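User: Hello, can you help with two protein structures?

Assistant: Certainly.
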Amino acid sequence: MTGVNLHVLPAGPIQTNAYLLTAPERGEAILIDAPGDVWAEVEPILQQENCKLSELWLTHGHWDHMQGGAEIVRRTGAKVLAHAADRILIETPEIMERFMGERMNLEAVKVDRWISQGEVLPAFGLEVEVRHVPGHCPGNVLFYFAVAGAAFVGDALFNGSIGRTDLPGGNFAELEKSVREQIYTLPEKTVVFPGHGPRTTVAHERATNPYIHG
């Protein structure tokens, strides 16, 4: 993406990837996912590039992707976008403590806009397609920047793996179906940016992923 910088910021207890997109010439920035304590990494980049964080896009509502969201909103006033299927997780995150078996002092995040399959979001003068990819989590979505050939997919698909489906709301058959229909149908050269671990490509995963073959 011409004029847009991508900062990959693993953060939080299990090194969840946050992706900070900045456009210094426009003074704009968007953050995809907000793991715990990520603000400490985001703030100096915003200052250095003289950008204002306008929006926080959540790929899904699991605790490790939204743990730092409330702090981000307080400090920046960023508008939050997420899928309504994960509303209960985002607005009442204490329910995640029940199946995690520990107190994590999670703070609810106020969502300003609920997004859905097929929506097109404006970002840096570009169009970004929203695709719903449930199975790991009911509200998992991906954000596809067609011009850049990049898809930010949350925990639906990893390099050589997939998101776990044994948590509440998870379903392997549903994940398999949505990966095939919503990720593997993207152009083969599309770079896939997952919620954990290194990037990959649609072509690589279709050919070699041991869990969901193309």
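That covers the first. Now for the second protein you mentioned:
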Amino acid sequence: MNEIKVGLIGFGNIGAGVVRLLHENRQTIQQKVGQNVVLKRIADLDITSDRGVDVDDSLLTTDVNQIFNDPEISIVIELIGGYEPAKTFVLKAIEAGKHVVTANKALLALHGEDIYAAAARKGVEIQFEAAVGGGIPVLSAIKGNLAGNRFTSVFGIMNGTCNYILTRMTQEGADFGEVLQNAKELGYAEPDPTFDIEGTDTAHKLAVLASLCFGTRIDFNSIHTEGITGISGIDISYAAEFGYRIKLLAIGKRTVDGQLEVRVHPTMIPLHNPLADVNGVFNAIHLTGDFVGPVLFYGRGAGSNPTASAIVGDLIALSRSITAGIQGRCNAPLGFMDDAVVNLPLKPMEDIVTSFMLRFTAQDQPGVLASIAGVLGKNGISIASMVQTARHNGGKAVPIVIMTHEAEEGAIRAALTEIDSFDFISEKSRLIRIEDNLE
């Protein structure tokens, strides 16, 4: 039986999962491809540490060029992550005429256009299912069975670290710092969790996901990105009181005027919406297509085994193409023909219209509420409901929480700037956006 030979760059936790899956399910994969899929070379700077999988030493190398220069290797899996040297390695593999599988959402978010163009020139394919949602097969669904739809929106909880932290804070009233430390100990958070908790990882994934949904190039640096470091227990409590749960949400919407909303930030989601019940390290992605309607994908968004599942799924898809002698799909890595991919304008954040929860910390004295309401009214912001606690406490600062009707973000920010200048405001005011209609 013929063999399809594969080179693996990066032998960390996920790489070890790929090796384990290829070994344990070797017969199943052969039955689905029609050929044996064989790892011929594994390149990593560290080839001595125990990964918990049995690997013949002859497969291991610290010289990545042994993969690029081997004419028998037809598929390269890149799993080192980051921008460089990952970009250089992927482009070298493409230049050598090899198909590529990657889980590198950061690389694709910033340099995807260059990589897709290089693959098209060389007539090879690039697959990247594991870049978004770990083991959740959302990208292949968008490019495959759902390809007949015109998507109007995509919403996603796409970072397990943040979702784990917010879940613990919500269910247990735990402190952010305490839960973050626990997440590191459990392996849910990196030693430096900045990319996760500041929303960057989610924004990388949204850039890839929105490109596929809307057939457009997304400038990663134009995505409005906020993390969860500013969310406190009091925010979570008031959100629950109003019937909401706070999640770090990736949002992509096609507006009626042809613009796109592409943003990542903590968001209040109604308790009755399924996304509100996505807890722990799980991810969920909600799509709305014009014919299929709403579709929800749910599963483990990270981890060695789920991510390996997606990577090997891409590997099988490429192996089937090789077995069948099929070429030419590389000109549609985003699911659209290359000449149909456009540059849709992104709606400025100040023009975004949604509802808000506003939290003020003000001295408990007469006239405070009237002054706040006056500034909101002057900026065209209508109050839907309000909570003020701890009256008659000797003039100490108390929280005032206001739910607004829909308003422009620019108007909200202008109002908060003026309100924060008042002497009776003790802390910088907080806003959390609300998404009531997740379709």
